[in-house]
């Protein structure tokens, strides 16, 4: 399935926000977006795409080509080759899954293309494998989990059962939690990526003496697990990074998630002008609440356009410097790049609450201020 | 590993096996009676799940959703048989594989066109949700027990149908010699459509039952289809009894392998590598089982030799 969209020209006056790219010298950029638009991970890719398109709306200097990777690394690699060689894009973005990012990003940057990651943050690309052309606009995979581990120490969580899919992000997430968590890890289980039945794992949870289940299961995996967990009668507390409790998952599982704590760099109730505008515009445009993936797609487009206003993408050194400034109003509030091109940002603790009929997240505090990943030390940029 | 956990995992394995049986029964019937390899069987499973999710969304009734799943899958099966499959009986298996693979693509893209790429979620009816306490203090989700019961009922029903009824006699005769039963005045093409629709309805039922605990999405049938083929190869092609035994074997091997092997490996190696190697071996376990069975019984456990 292929959606090719050329963002239509709209008069600058209609933008209303006086954004950074609204200058006559702005360079033209062709962006290739490879993301997951079908299957159990579709919700994530659709949100990244919609967030990106919302922020890029009306910018006629930005041409966007969108492709569906079906969460398959081989498909993603083919699409990247096609976008680089026949579409001749300047910038690639969009990948959701760390295993796909590992398959695509090193090859793309080696061919001189910029890559802006709106979601995946594998540790390998933050440390030894970092590249001057690779920017992560979301997070390094460990980030939310390091914050959650620290929070668990302070909140009397003594024994945890860890579960994540067996792929680079799953391993990073668990490693991140264990880096800061000081209590007992009772069991550590890795599932298949895309698994839909968790009966066997739930039986292990029931039999273990853990007091809390800490899991990372994004998209459809999280929905399947939470529905089955709620029906199993196991009454241990659950906790996880925001991916396990994002808006798409909460909409499908409903009240079963109320009260659950999860860590995130973004929430729809973070109080700043950019975020208020984003949440309102997103709801007006698409008729649903934005998720963190949408926020990341939105910030990615804002970052790209801020750099387009300052430098020509053909001048790689200047464009890289423009990206490094991160001169845009992030919906997260504070945002800066560390030397390894990964974010320095606050990680919040959120709680799942009910607002009217809608189950959603609410910020209850900062779990880790100005968080930065630990892999940057290995990155020679 | 405690006994309670082991029993719970055995129940999970049986539930998985019973679900595979619903898929494999149709597949093996169709292959046995018509000699047709139907790769599109997974699509019929998906059709059942989507029909159930849609009707449950409209009416809120799970019973109606199940009826809709059976009806939609049977209708889709009959339609496909009349339009496409009928032309394939005399062709070789490669042509059948090609045509039914095309059907998978048509069903998948068609479903994507109508329902979109976003997974749908079907809720378990309130009366069947939550756990029950089994003797020995074992908590188990009621819905999964119901799946086991439904699967075993269907198995019993199929045995009666094949062994005791007139249709069953015709099916068995069709398996043995299709020219002969045509010569004896049985309308063979009607019989084929019927068998195909029956197989499709079972796949649709499996899709709807499983859709309520997992998610309903495009392409959900293909992973199950592969396992269903493993089941019928193990059980012996064309044999319903073989499909039941094979399905339970595969279900138990897969579930218990995944649960026990990492623990077993951890007794003599480091926990982290035991976990990785254990899960890797567990995911191969059913294929090792299949290879083992074929080594000793090349036509499967209950296959005609």
TrEMBL record, chain A:
Where do the Leucine-binding protein domain residues begin and end?
28-356
InterPro entries given for it? BCAA_transport, Leu-bd, Peripla_BP_I
Q: Which Gene3D superfamilies match?
A: 3.40.50.2300
Q: Name one Pfam family in it.
A: Peripla_BP_6
Keywords (alphabetical) are:
Signal
Tell me the protein's name: Leucine-binding protein domain-containing protein
UniProtKB/TrEMBL annotation, chain B:
> Which is a Gene Ontology cellular component entry for this protein?
plasma membrane
Molecular function terms from GO = transmembrane transporter activity
- Read off the InterPro entries from this record: ABC_transp_permease, BCAA_transport_permease
A biological process (GO) of this protein is: amino acid transport
| Keywords from the UniProt entry | Amino-acid transport, Cell membrane, Membrane, Transmembrane, Transmembrane helix, Transport
The way it spans or sits in the membrane comes to: Multi-pass membrane protein
- Known Pfam families for this protein? BPD_transp_2
Membrane keyword on record? yes
Location comes to:
Cell membrane
Membrane spanning stretches: 14-37, 44-60, 66-85, 97-122, 142-163, 191-213, 219-237, 244-265, 277-296
Q: What is its main location?
A: membrane
Q: Which family does it belong to?
A: Belongs to the binding-protein-dependent transport system permease family. LivHM subfamily.
* Identification of the protein by name: Branched-chain amino acid ABC transporter permease
Natural source organism: marine sediment metagenome
């Amino acid at each position: 399935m292929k959606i090719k969209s050329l963002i239509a020209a709209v008069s600058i006056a209609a933008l209303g926000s006086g954004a950074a790219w609204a200058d006559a010298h702005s360079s033209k950029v062709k962006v290739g977006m490879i993301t997951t638009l079908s299957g159990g991970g579709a919700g994530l890719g659709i949100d990244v795409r919609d967030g990106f398109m919302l922020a890029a709306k009306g910018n006629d200097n930005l041409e966007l080509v969108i492709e569906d990777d079906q969460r398959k690394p081989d498909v993603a690699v083919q699409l990247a080759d096609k976008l680089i060689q026949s579409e001749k894009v300047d910038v690639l973005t969009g990948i959701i899954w760390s295993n796909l990012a590992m398959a695509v990003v090193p090859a793309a940057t080696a061919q001189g293309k910029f890559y802006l990651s709106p979601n995946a943050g594998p540790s390998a690309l933050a440390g030894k494998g970092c590249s001057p052309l690779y920017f992560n606009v979301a997070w390094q995979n460990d980030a939310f989990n390091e914050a959650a581990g620290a929070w668990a120490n302070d909140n009397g969580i003594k024994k945890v059962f860890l579960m994540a899919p067996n792929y680079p992000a799953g391993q990073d997430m668990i490693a991140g939690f264990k880096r800061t968590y000081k209590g007992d890890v009772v069991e550590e289980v890795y599932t298949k990526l895309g698994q839909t039945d968790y009966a066997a794992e739930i039986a292990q949870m029931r039999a273990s003496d853990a007091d809390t289940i800490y899991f990372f299961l994004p998209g459809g995996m999280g929905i399947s697990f939470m529905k089955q967990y709620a029906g199993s009668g196991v009454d241990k507390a659950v906790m996880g990074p925001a991916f396990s409790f994002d808006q798409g998952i909460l909409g499908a599982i409903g009240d079963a998630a109320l009260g659950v704590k999860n860590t995130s760099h973004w929430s729809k109730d973070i109080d700043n002008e950019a975020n208020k505008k984003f949440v309102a515009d997103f709801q007006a445009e698409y008729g649903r609440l934005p998720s963190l993936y949408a926020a990341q797609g939105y910030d990615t487009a804002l970052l790209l356009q801020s750099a387009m206003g300052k430098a020509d993408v053909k001048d790689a050194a200047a464009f890289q410097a423009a990206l490094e400034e991160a001169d845009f109003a992030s919906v997260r509030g504070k945002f800066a790049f560390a030397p390894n091109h990964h974010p320095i940002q606050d990680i919040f603790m959120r709680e799942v609450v009910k607002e009217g009929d809608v189950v959603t997240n609410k910020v209850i505090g900062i779990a880790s201020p100005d968080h930065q990943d630990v892999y940057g030390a290995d990155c020679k940029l | 590993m405690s006994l309670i956990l082991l029993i719970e995992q055995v129940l999970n394995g049986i539930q998985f096996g019973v679900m595979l049986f619903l898929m494999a029964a149709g597949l093996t019937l169709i292959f046995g009676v018509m000699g047709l390899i139907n790769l599109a069987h997974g699509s019929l499973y998906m059709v059942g799940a989507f029909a159930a999710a849609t009707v449950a969304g409209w009416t809120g009734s799970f019973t109606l959703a199940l009826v809709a799943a059976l009806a939609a899958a049977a209708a889709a099966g009959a339609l496909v048989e009349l339009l496409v499959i009928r032309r394939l009986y005399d062709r070789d298996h490669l042509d059948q594989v090609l045509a039914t693979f095309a059907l998978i693509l048509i069903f998948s893209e068609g479903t994507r066109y109508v329902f979109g790429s976003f997974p749908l979620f079907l809720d378990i009816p309130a009366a069947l949700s939550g756990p029950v306490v089994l003797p020995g203090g074992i908590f188990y989700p009621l819905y999964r027990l119901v799946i086991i019961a439904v699967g075993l009922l269907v198995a019993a029903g199929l045995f009666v149908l094949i062994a005791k009824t007139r249709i069953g006699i015709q099916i068995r005769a069709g398996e043995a010699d299709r020219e002969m039963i045509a010569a004896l005045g049985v309308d063979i093409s009607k019989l084929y459509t019927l068998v195909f629709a029956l197989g499709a309805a079972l796949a649709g039922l499996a899709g709807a039952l499983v859709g309520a605990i997992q998610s309903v999405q495009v392409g959900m049938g293909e992973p199950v289809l592969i396992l269903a083929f493993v089941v019928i190869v193990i059980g012996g092609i064309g044999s319903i009894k073989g499909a039941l035994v094979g399905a339970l074997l595969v279900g138990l091997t897969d579930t218990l392998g995944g649960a026990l092997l990492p623990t077993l490996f951890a007794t003599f190696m480091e926990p982290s590598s035991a976990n990785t190697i254990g899960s890797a071996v567990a995911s191969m376990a059913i294929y090792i089982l299949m290879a083992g069975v074929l080594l000793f019984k090349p036509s499967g456990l209950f296959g005609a030799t």
